[in-house]
Write a structure and sequence with these properties.
Strand order of the largest sheet: 1-4-5-8
Distance between the termini: 53 Å
Strand content: 5-15%
Number of helices: 11
Number of domains: 3
Largest sheet: 4 strands, mixed
Number of strands: 10
CATH topology of the largest domain: Butyryl-CoA Dehydrogenase, subunit A, domain 3
Structural class: alpha+beta
CATH class of the largest domain: Mainly Alpha
């Protein structure tokens, strides 16, 4: 199946038709999520044997870019479910089946969210302020505060992690597991009232001793940077799919900008279309060149993940680089589209105004600009001397 068959135009238009209302009312995209689930969209990575489409990262990234042209906040939140199912697929393709249960449960309709980020934790996946308390049966209780939990109003399974400070002779151990929504120990705050990406409901999640039984603890890693397959898989899916979503936002803004230029006329130039204005034409061309540059890069990185290409130490620079480049590129394209559209884009409620707000969220996702540059510098120059 191609992208148009999985996400037909008629479905995209329904999603686009709801996006402004979700944004205005700061409301979660329940109707979008239901329609996408009915269309099998949440099973893109799930093997056909488990009821899914069995797609790879390249195909899913293209679909997420297409979805984001209609409903950016919906695409961003759905990303979190696709990250976990994508991680399971990437790991299975490399011989690690420890997350196969994620694919099977997604095939049965479970919705996964990403409960990883913590305020002030710039180590991200390599340390945690959340407490993971070991239990005698091998399970854990998690206590902590997770921020930017997209899909907070729709998940049934929350992938999270915390630190067991007493493990490994006091060096500490990072413990990863999945929490069920129908079990106690978690709380979703009503604190998501933001500039953009409002429908994503990326609320704060409080963990009050949330129990994860042994069969849902899927990884234990040492504190600090490491090359574990789980870390690679999370980076590969998270960064690539984020790049795709924000590129979709830019694609939509570019399309609207071109249409607006064709419609606008200049009294100074005798009522001629602004499409004949050399300065406007330069801006449109600049935006087109930016789009042409980023799309093949996303496809290539995703294809290399699918094809098990070994980039060695350059894998992480490639992954953080594509996210940083795509989100900055998207801001540049949307800005140009705003400029050629003119003052109408400044009015509250226009689609261009919403895209302008939505695209700004890209700078806050990990890896941020500083972290990405540090990763790339380390890969080429080695770490800073102590």
């Amino acid at each position: 199946m191609n992208s148009e068959e999985i996400l037909p135009d008629v479905l995209l238009e329904r999603l686009r038709g709801r996006a402004a209302g979700y944004d205005r009312d700061n409301r979660f995209f329940h109707e979008d999520l239901e329609e996408l689930a009915d269309a099998g969209y949440l099973k893109l990575f799930v093997p056909e044997a488990d009821g899914g489409l069995g797609l790879g990262l390249e195909a899913v990234a293209a679909l997420q870019q297409r979805l984001a042209t209609a409903a950016p906040a919906t695409a961003l939140a759905v990303n979190m479910h696709l990250v976990w199912t994508g991680v399971a697929r990437v790991m299975a393709a490399r011989g690690d089946n420890s997350l196969d249960f994620v694919l099977k449960e997604a095939g049965k309709g479970e919705v996964f969210a990403f409960g990883i980020s913590e305020a002030g934790n710039d180590s991200m996946l390599f340390d945690s302020g959340t407490v993971a308390e070991a239990l005698p049966d091998g399970g854990y209780r998690f206590t902590g505060r997770k921020i930017f939990t997209s899909l907070s109003r729709g998940w049934t399974r929350l992938g999270t992690f915390g630190k067991d400070a007493a493990a490994r002779d006091g060096a500490g151990e990072l413990v990863f597991g999945f929490i069920r929504r129908d079990e106690p120990g978690h709380e979703t705050l009503s604190d998501w009232d933001t500039l953009g990406m409002r429908a994503s409901a990326s609320n704060t999640t409080l963990l009050h001793g949330a129990l994860v039984p042994p069969d849902r603890i899927f990884r234990k890693l040492p504190v600090g940077p490491n090359q574990d397959l789980l870390i690679f898989a999370i980076f590969a899916c998270f960064e690539t799919l984020l790049a795709a979503v924000y590129t979709g936002v830019a694609e939509r803004a570019f399309f609207l900008g071109v249409e607006n230029v064709k419609r606008r006329v200049s009294a100074k130039n005798g009522g001629r279309s602004l499409a004949q204005d050399p300065d406007i034409r330069w801006k449109v061309a600049d935006a087109a060149l930016a789009m042409d540059g980023i799309q093949p890069q996303i496809a290539t990185v995703a294809r290399d993940v699918d094809n098990l290409v070994d980039h060695g130490a350059q894998w992480f620079p490639k992954l953080v680089g594509i996210k940083s480049r795509a989100t900055e590129n998207a801001r540049h394209v949307v800005d140009l589209a705003i400029r050629v559209t003119g003052g109408s884009s400044f009015f509250r409620g226009s689609e261009m105004e919403r895209l302008y707000r939505d695209v700004l969220a890209g700078i806050f996702h990990p890896s941020n600009d500083e972290s990405a540059h540090n990763t790339v510098a380390n890969a080429w120059l080695g770490p800073l001397e102590k």
